[in-house]
Design goal:
By secondary structure, this protein is α+β, with helices and mostly antiparallel strands. It has one domain: Nucleoside Triphosphate Pyrophosphohydrolase. The chain is built from five helices and ten strands. Strands 3, 4, 5, 6, 7, 8, 9 and 10 form an eight-stranded mixed sheet that branches. The chain has a two-stranded antiparallel sheet with strand order 1-2. The longest helix has 13 residues. The chain is globular, with a radius of gyration of 17 Å. The N and C termini lie far apart (35 Å). The structure holds inosine-5'-diphosphate. It catalyses: a 5'-end (N(7)-methyl 5'-triphosphoguanosine)-ribonucleoside in mRNA + H2O = N(7)-methyl-GDP + a 5'-end phospho-ribonucleoside in mRNA + 2 H(+); IDP + H2O = IMP + phosphate + H(+); dIDP + H2O = dIMP + phosphate + H(+). Belongs to the Nudix hydrolase family. NUDT16 subfamily. Its EC number is 3.6.1.64. GO terms for molecular function: 5'-(N(7)-methylguanosine 5'-triphospho)-[mRNA] hydrolase activity; IDP phosphatase activity; phosphodiesterase decapping endonuclease activity; snoRNA binding.
């Protein structure tokens, strides 16, 4: 699929737990990268009138900055992207299930404060940061993904605050930068990072969002997915 098309999404979700999510955005959809990673989350379009009201909804967010700096002599990543090491050893994004009756975006910001100690007076996710949603019927779970852009100096301040987060040391074991480059051996860097264990659809969220934000090209992503493991 090579065509880009426009998604028009508007509506309101009221989940069984009373979660309120008002949708009103239009975003350009993009061709999804082909990945052999197996999970049962399907990308969904809210303009289709499925009944997601009986599903559990979770909201997660990628915090990132664009950059154009040399990190090592030969590497020049175009962005700095944060993920977290969870309590269960999986990599994921900050976020989670929203409390009953809580506004969805409010719930996501609350999770970011609890898990990352994000200073909500400076950085707050809004509907304009929405990227895409997925649904798993077998898990009865709908996942909504957002990307919050900041500057590199601000991102460094965000990282420095994480160890004082309420959930640090329990639910969250650390924040990590994703290596958005591939080293000379063709495997170390991003391809090696992708071999870790990811929770839910976090790996797909990462790949699709990197492509959508043009932090990696589709070719760079395909090459990383095809790279063969290498003795470290
Ligand atoms: O970063 C993520 N990206 C995509 N899916 C995730 C991510 N983190 C968790 N999930 C999925 O969403 C569900 C609920 O999210 P939450 O963060 O509350 O997980 P937890 O209950 O395992 O801590 C999880 O069971 C998992 O399937």
């Amino acid at each position: 699929m090579n065509t880009t098309f426009k998604l028009l999404i508007s509506g309101r979700i009221l989940t069984k737990s009373g979660l309120v999510h008002n949708f009103k955005y239009s975003s350009t959809a993009w061709p999804f990268v082909k990945d052999t990673y197996i999970n049962d989350f399907k990308v969904i379009d809210y303009s289709k009138k499925y009944d997601y009201s009986k599903s559990t909804h979770a909201f997660h967010c990628m915090v990132y900055a664009r950059m154009n700096e040399q990190t090592f002599t030969i590497q020049r990543p175009r962005g700095c992207v944060l993920m977290q090491m969870r309590f269960d050893g999986y990599l994921g994004f900050p976020g989670g299930l929203v409390d009953p009756g809580e506004d969805a975006i409010h719930g996501l910001n609350r999770e970011l404060e609890e898990e990352m100690n994000l200073d909500l007076t400076k950085h707050k996710v809004t509907e304009k940061d929405f990227i895409f949603s997925q649904h798993s019927s077998s898990r009865n779970l709908t996942l909504h993904f957002y990307a919050l852009e900041t500057t590199l100096p601000e991102l460094e301040k965000i990282e420095a605050r994480v160890q004082l987060a309420k959930d640090y040391g329990s639910e969250v074991l650390g924040i990590v930068r994703v290596p958005l480059y591939t080293m000379r051996d063709g495997f170390r860097g991003f391809p090696a990072f992708l071999t870790h264990a990811f929770i839910g659809s976090a790996r797909e969220q990462l790949l699709h969002t990197l492509q959508h934000l043009k932090l990696l090209t589709p070719e760079e992503i395909s090459d990383a997915l095809a790279a063969k493991p290498h003795k470290g």
